[in-house]
Design brief:
Blueprint (H helix, E strand, L loop, with lengths): L8 E11 L5 E12 L2 H12 L4 H26 L9 E2 L3 E6 L9 E5 L2 H8 L3 E3 L3 H5 L9 H7 L7 E6 L2 E7 L8 E7 L2 H11 L8 H4 L5 H8 L2 H4 L13 H11 L6 H23 L5 E5 L6 H10 L4 E3 L11 H14 L7 H4 L9 E3 L1
Parallel strand pairs: 3-6, 7-10, 10-11
Antiparallel strand pairs: 1-2, 4-5, 6-12, 7-8, 8-9
Helix pairs in contact: 2-3, 6-11, 8-10, 8-11, 11-12
């Protein structure tokens, strides 16, 4: 189960993992579903990411997020006709409400994903694993990204370098060299849908720009474009990770004010932010990867044609391919990845890649209950 920083909802997939005679890991998706949060649920969760709240509120949110996961899981099992007793493990990410990676070699970062693992295990009567990021951070790592362990196993090509991009609330990428002697590299590139969604809510009262139609009607505002492109995180060298503690409504407000664009059409602002988002992803590939690669794009941003058109324009020599060619839908990839992380942990296999996160060593991730 995956609930990301975009707060779209909960993605669930039922997957069987196995190992063939040559030691290669295999997966088979049995069922999958993407559930959108109601407006009431999304507003409730957004409050805990944007407002200063009390410890009592945090405790309440932890319970409510656990309850929501249990309810959506039961809905999934009922709709798909799945017997929960046939499931070996429930692997869950939890809801990130804070992520503060280490700032230098002497600093230990900290992160918080709300959800009670014992509580969810009791509510669902399933062995449950979660809290995947803290072990990596305890060893000096960024605690993110964790998806590259899946990418390196299942997306590798011996013919060409591969880049896997996920555009959720934040955007991240994994660079998988065709040369196995080169290290895999992965990191957050900056905002994914977050600034687009915030602008849509501010100017149009909508949760997101469905099919990129509002952006398509706008033009790029040069002053706003310049100020967005000067955000330091975009060109910061990896390893790096980020979240709503950096890219949020306060940042958007500041950039809009210094750009003097509050009186411009909302479509122009959304278009500028959308194109900037695509540019920022491509710029990270140009700086730290290989723009002549085969590229897979997943996450909600993959469903935005305006964003994707700009990304294709920024990377004209790349070969884009789809997740369907690999056997899964783009929307379900992160849920699939965390299912894989849970499976690895049960088998005593590490889930982080130190060259990616900056951790001192590889470590088995997560906590299991019972």
């Amino acid at each position: 189960m995956m609930s990301g920083t975009s707060l779209d909802g909960i993605d669930i997939c039922l997957t069987e993992f196995s190992i063939d005679e040559e030691g290669k890991h295999l997966f088979s998706i049995k069922e999958q579903a993407v559930y959108s949060y109601t407006l009431e649920e999304k507003d409730f969760l957004t409050r805990f990411l944007q407002d200063t709240i009390s410890i009592e509120d945090v405790s309440h949110a932890n319970y409510e997020i656990t309850r929501l996961h249990a309810e959506y899981l039961q809905r999934f099992l009922t709709e798909k006709g799945v017997d929960s007793q046939e499931c070996d493990l429930l692997s869950v990410h939890g809801q990130t409400v804070w992520h503060s990676p280490p700032r230098d070699g002497h600093d230990i970062g900290h992160t918080l994903q709300l959800l009670s693992i014992p509580g969810l295990a009791a509510m669902t009567n399933l062995k449950t694993i979660g809290d995947f990021r803290t072990a990596d951070m305890a060893l000096g790592g960024q605690g993110a990204p964790l998806v590259p362990i899946f990418d390196s196993e299942f997306l590798y090509s011996q013919d060409q370098d591969t880049i896997a991009i996920n555009i959720g609330g934040m955007a991240n990428l994994t660079f998988i060299p065709r040369d196995r002697n080169q290290q895999i590299m992965a990191f957050d590139t900056g905002p994914g849908n977050i600034l687009i969604d915030l602008a849509m809510k501010r100017f149009f009262g909508k949760q997101f720009d469905e099919n990129g139609v509002f952006a398509q009607e706008g033009i790029i505002l040069e002053r706003l474009w310049k100020n967005l492109c000067e955000l330091e995180f975009i060109t910061q060298k990896p390893p790096k990770s980020t979240g709503r503690e950096m890219f949020n409504s306060a940042l958007l407000q500041d950039i809009l004010e210094v750009s003097f664009v509050n009186t411009f059409p909302g479509e122009d602002i959304v278009r500028t932010i959308t194109d900037f988002t695509a540019w920022s992803i491509a710029e990270n590939i140009r700086l730290f990867g290989n723009p002549i690669s085969r590229i897979l794009v997943t996450g909600g941003g993959a469903n935005n044609p305006t964003l994707m058109a700009r990304l294709h324009k920024e990377l004209p020599k790349a070969v884009f391919f789809t997740s369907q060619e690999l056997g899964f839908d783009a929307d379900i990839k992160e849920a699939l990845c965390f299912a894989y992380l849970g499976w690895r942990s049960l088998g005593g296999l590490s889930g982080n890649i130190p060259s990616v996160t900056g951790a001192k060593r590889a470590v088995v991730l997560g906590c299991v209950s019972p």
